[in-house]
Amino acid sequence: MSGGPEHVLVVGAGLGGIRTVEQLRQAGYEGRISLVGAEAHPPYDRPPLSKQLLAGDWEAERLALKEEAALEDLGVRMYLGLRAVALRPGEVELADGAVLTADAIVLAPGVEARRLPGQPEGVHTLRTLDDALTLRDELDKASTLLVVGAGFIGAEVASTAIGKGVQVTMVEAAPVPLVRGLGAEVGALAARLIREGGVDLRTGVALTGFVEPSGAGVAVELADGSRIEADVALVGIGGRPDLGWLADAGLDLTDGIPCDAQGRVLGLDGVWAVGDAAAWDYPAQGGRHRHEHWTSTADQATIVARAITGTEAPPATVPYFWSDQFGLKIQLIGRPDLADGIVPLHGEGLSGGAVKGTVAGYLRGDRLVAVAGFGAARYIARYRALLLAEADRAQALEFAASLRR
Ligand SMILES: Cc1cc2nc3c(=O)[nH]c(=O)nc-3n(C[C@H](O)[C@H](O)[C@H](O)COP(=O)(O)OP(=O)(O)OC[C@H]3O[C@@H](n4cnc5c(N)ncnc54)[C@H](O)[C@@H]3O)c2cc1C
């Protein structure tokens, strides 16, 4: 590649950061690259934190997103264990006072785990490798776990804990788990999966606060007056971008870093953003949206690297998310949050039958906007083309029937 920036600076050494670096090199970029990361660890993968690592099946080394030698081959200068504390035109200031200048800057800071007001220090959240290792140590000694919030991470931790022989109680304020992400009907299916997996799931009841436990461990009180005690507690109520360091950059950071459809940060020249913290514009899907998905982060890194290097944009993709829990893979493609209706496509789960093998289509009006599957991997990938083609309900049903024939 000729032309283009002389130095690309990437802030955030997680998935989005390292994928951006890799994609820059893949696109032929030969200039300088620097990667700044607040954590001391080289880039690692987060999905196994609540699954294989927590279960004790994998050790931390296996989570590395790049082997040491491969990292060296990328020719990237790493600044690990150092937080970026300010962004100014063409430069980033680090926590140790150093100022790095660059002609292209990519922001990939991810999100931090949300905590509850008054959450005691010893009550866990799960976002980082260090969080997961601490939680694993405690779970190994525990016989009971309380999970607050029935989101994907809470459900995965509950599933892993059950696998370790720990009794799990889960409290969720909404009437069903994942109601915002999956909607009420599919959320009810997720509730069945969690309960059939052996969890004491209590929905529709809010936590009023942490109280003094009768022994060691943690105690909470619920709005219905009940009280739960457990050896260990995890709060899994989602993530939020931690963008205080961008406060003086002149951006509206209400819900993440505002970007155009190629990841350029609005109003800032030469700055891009990818990953969980980045709110990209999706004009055909109703505007700005912040995905917190592994695959979307990797896809965005490719788009940004190609934009920086002036190489051809990759083909369009469909958002994809997976979660492994209670022996099933839940898979989601498309944008269920845009839907106003559901159509059963495979399996019996939505009418009270087995959860496994159930596939639901999400409709906005007559148009298919997403598909969710529970233990139905052989079907899910095949709906990608249908979503890209903006298929309607009749086409979705016909396609489902053709897959069964
Ligand atoms: C436990 C867990 C399980 C998951 N499971 C799944 C799954 O099954 N399927 C799925 O699709 N997705 C899953 N995800 C989500 C997926 O891991 C994320 O979408 C992905 O990691 C996002 O990448 P990112 O680069 O935006 O953020 P991250 O991977 O979080 O990396 C951001 C990095 O930037 C650093 N940083 C933040 N601020 C600064 C700063 N100011 N200066 C320097 N560095 C900074 C952070 O410390 C962090 O290391 C899971 C996430 C977690 C936590």
Automatic annotation (TrEMBL):
Chain ranges of the Reductase C-terminal domain: 320-394
UniProt KW keywords: FAD, Flavoprotein, Oxidoreductase
InterPro entries: FAD-oxidoreductase/Apoptosis, FAD/NAD-bd_sf, FAD/NAD-binding_dom, FAD/NAD-linked_Rdtase_dimer_sf, Reductase_C
Residues annotated as domain FAD/NAD(P)-binding: 7-299
Co-factor(s): FAD
GO cellular component, one term: cytoplasm
GO MF term list: oxidoreductase activity, acting on NAD(P)H
Keyword Lipid metabolism: no
SUPFAM superfamilies named among the record's database cross-references: FAD/NAD(P)-binding domain (SSF51905), FAD/NAD-linked reductases, dimerisation (C-terminal) domain (SSF55424)
Protein name: Ferredoxin reductase
Source organism of this protein record: Pseudonocardia halophobica
